[in-house]
Structures are given as C-alpha cells and as structure tokens.
Amino acid sequence: MSFYAFCLISYIVSLLPEIDAAPRLVEFPFNMLAISAPAVLWVITRYLFVDNPKIHKPILAVIGGYIALRAYGNLTGPYSDIGFWVVYVSTQTIMLFFACHVVLMAVKGRGGDLVESRRRFRVPFTATMGTIVAIIVGSGFFAALGSQLNIMFIGTIFFLVLIFNLATFRLHKDSTQLIEPDTEQTVPSLKSRMNEMDKDKPLVDRIHHVMEDQRLYAQPGFTIGMLASAVSMQEYRLRRLINQKLHYRNFNQYLNQYRIAEAAKRLQDPAEGQVAISTIALDVGYASLSSFNKAFKELHGVTPSIYRSRASQ
Hints:
Blueprint: H1 2-14, H2 17-20, H3 24-49, H4 57-76, H5 81-108, H6 116-141, H7 150-171, H8 190-213, H9 224-230, H10 235-244, H11 251-268, H12 277-283, H13 289-300, H14 304-312
C-alpha cells in the first residue's frame, strides 16, 4: 500500500508542467511509478481478497513486459505510428485490463466471503481504488486533449482517497483483521471458551447434518443464503459461525471440502472406475470440469485423473 501511494504521488507529480518540461531522465522515474500503479494495486487486491493468492508466472511476465515496453518507449520516444500503437496503446490496454480485474476480484467473492470485516471493506476499496486506477489509465488515453483535465484528475484522486480513508477509519480496529487476527485482544479463559463451544455445538451439528444428509453441497450455484434458509438461521450469524468455529474464510472453501471428499471417495471406488470424471464433477456440484480439477488439485496436490490412477494401483 505504501508503494502504491508512491505510485499515485508520482502520477500527480508527472502531471506538473515543470516535470513535463524537464529532461527525460528526470521525468522517467515518475512516469514509471505512475504506470506501475495498476499492477501494484492488482497484487494488493489479490492478497487482500483471494484466499489462495498465488500469482502465476505468465501474469508476472505480462506485468514485467508492459512496464519494460513503456520504459523503452519513455527513453527512446517519440514514436512512429506503429511504435505508438505497440509501445503506448497496447500497454494502456493491458493496464486497463488490470484495473478492471481489480474490480472483478473485489466484487466477485463478496457473496461467499466469511470474514465480515473484509466483506465490508470490499465495496469502498473497489469503488475508490478501482476508480483511481481507471483515472490514471484513462488520462493516458486522453493525453492528447491537453493539460486542461489535469486539475480534474488530481481533484478526483484526492476526493476518492479521502472517501477511502474515511471508510477505513469507520471499520476501526476490524480493518486490521483483513489478513490476520487482532493479537491484542484479551484471551478468554478456557472455561469461557468451552462454554462458547458447547453453546454453538448444536448449531454446528445442525449445519453438518443438513449438508451431509441432504447433500446440499451438490447443488450447482449453492450459496450461503440458501444454506441459511435450510438451517433457519440469519445469514450474518451463519457467516460468523462458519468463519470462527469451522475456520473457513470463504464459503467456496467450505463447499469444496464436501464436494471433493465425495469425489475422492468415488474416484477410489473400483465399481465407479468407468464413470467419467466429468460426470463425477457435475454430480458433486461443479458447473465445469476445469473448476473441479482446480479445486481437487488444491486439496490433494494432483489432478483427479492421476488420483484415480494411483488409487487403482
């Protein structure tokens, strides 16, 4: 977040006429930090809102590639017509993609997010940070209009950062629990913890009973709201229970435990050796084979086909 703040500052500085008229080597570091903002925010968003935030090498290659391409263009410009499209328009498009994906990551998982402070943090984060990056990218597309829009860009960024800070302060100490719990809380006594566990045990047992006996997890598109209706419980209370008592941060993780357990059992069963893996995936609730393969590999470390092959041996 600190580095992202430096990127925003560099973007604002790069709009100043004094910097624009300065030698290229003076302008270069500010421009490079400014165009890095979408990628930096994308990494921040992934680590905040994705519970398995592994960044694959092709994505890193794309980030490094477009930054290197812009660095080359900033040092060697001006461009020919083809060079302008390759060096400038293509990199702006990639930056716009990262900005849009930031919004998608923050919004997509909100329904299944079981960490209440993180769930409430998604909306102000998405609205402000996503818009700021969109302004940075958009200002590059509209650079030909001149410097008249610079004041509007700077004022909008200031206003959005102010809203973001107010929203963060409103979350108070819960905002520190987005990634890790508050270690300064008073540790409850063993007796109070046991009493709390005993009080919640019937509710947890009811959830397990409904999920296992009725195989609710096998319904495609099953949501936490549907589970709350099945167990006659308020949704916010169910979220807190699954998060704090069963230690899941995301509802999809909770569903995957049931789905993959049944799928693994069927893959080990010799009587189902001729059943297609795609059929098993659909039977346990997955909408596609690719999502099933991904979830299965995350839990077992191998693909379903390799798992079945090893079980048969």
